[in-house]
Amino acid sequence: MLGPFGKPSQPSNNQHKREGEWFAVSFRPENFIPGLVIGFIFGLLLDLSGLPKHNSKGNKTLSTRGKRQQQRLVSAADDGELKMVLVVRQDLKMKSGKIASQCAHGATGIYAELMQSQRTLLRQWEQCGQPKIVVTCKNQQEMNRLKEAAESIGLPTFVVADAGRTQVLAGSKTVLVVGPGSKTLVDSVTGRLSLL
């Protein structure tokens, strides 16, 4: 009789009852490969289900403080609207293409960070259409004040530091991302700034 890979199957008599032989049998290609595929698919489904992930210390990635902040961000939205604001420094005098790329770095940077810690917030923001507003600030000092104000009320922030290959010096802080968060909270930090 042939097994699943065209090899003669082994009789499962007394030969397989010996201690330790089950280990050798379980790692045969006809057993191991399907198990590996099933494990991969199961892992993928778990990841897509949005179950909380654990870091190397065994603690949940999203801390209790992070959960409270997330609940505050979402519950503070009177009408359920969430948005993100990208704050561009005027004093660097970046051209439009440079501003666009720096804003893209900011949006993808905050998204990557929140994928690890606040997936629910990201999903809600996506359901709102992922609104992004671009505004300006005068200089690094004003950007620092905005960042501190946003973080003090629990809004997520991300700062883009340029590599310095084109228009600005390496390490220059070009864009501050505030949110996504409730429109009310984000506007309390960035509402007075001018649109780009």
Q: Report the mean per-residue pLDDT as an integer.
A: 79
Determine the number of helices (DSSP H or I, runs of at least 4 residues).
7
State the oligomer: single chain
In CATH, what is the class of the largest domain? Alpha Beta
Describe the main β-sheet briefly: 4 strands, mixed
The CATH topology annotation of the largest domain reads as: Bit1
CATH superfamily of the largest domain: Bit1
Question: How helical, in percent, are the residues?
Answer: 40-55%
As residue ranges, the low-confidence spans are 51-65, 74-78
Q: Could you say what the CATH architecture of the largest domain is?
A: 3-Layer(aba) Sandwich
The class by helix and strand makeup works out as alpha+beta
SSE series: HHHEHHEHEEH
Distance between the termini: 74 Å
Number of domains: 2
Please give the radius of gyration in angstroms.
26 Å
β-strand number = 4
Strand adjacency order, main sheet: 2-1-4-3
Shape: elongated
Please indicate the percent range of residues in DSSP E strands (runs of 2 or more). Answer: 5-15%
Family: Belongs to the PTH2 family.
Catalytic activity: an N-acyl-L-alpha-aminoacyl-tRNA + H2O = an N-acyl-L-amino acid + a tRNA + H(+)
Keywords: Hydrolase, Membrane, Transmembrane, Transmembrane helix
Protein name: peptidyl-tRNA hydrolase
